[in-house]
Amino acid sequence: MKRGRIMAKYDENQIQVLEGLEAVRKRPGMYIGSISSRGLHHLVYEIVDNAVDEALAGFCTEINVEILPDNIVSVTDNGRGIPIGKHPKMGISTLEVVFTILHAGGKFGGGGYKVSGGLHGVGASVVNALSESVYVEACDGDGVYAASFARGKTIEHAHKIAEGKKSGTKVVFKPDAQIFETTEFDTDILVQRLREMAFLNKGLKITLWDKRQEGSEQMVFHYEGGIKSFVDFLNKGKDTIGSDVIYFEGEDNNVQVEIALQYTTSYSENILSFVNNIPTPEGGTHVDGFKRGLTKAFNDYGRRFNILKEKDSNLAGEDIREGISAIVSVRVLEPQFEGQTKTKLGNSEVTGVVNNIMVNKMGQFLEETPNVAKVIVEKTLSAQRAREAARKARDLARRKTPLESSTLPGKLADCSEKDASKCEIYIVEGDSAGGSAKQGRDRRFQAILPLWGKMLNVEKARADKIYNNEKLSPIIIALGAGIGNDFNIEKLRYHKIILMADADVDGAHIRTLLLTFFFRHMRPLVENGYVYIAQPPLFKIFKKGIEDIYCYNEADLDVKIKELEEKGISRDSLSIQRYKGLGEMDSDQLWETTMNPETRILVQVQLDDAIKADQMFSILMGENVEPRREFIEQNAKYVTNLDV
Question: Of 66, 506, 527, 609, which residue is the catalytic one?
Answer without folding.
Answer: 506
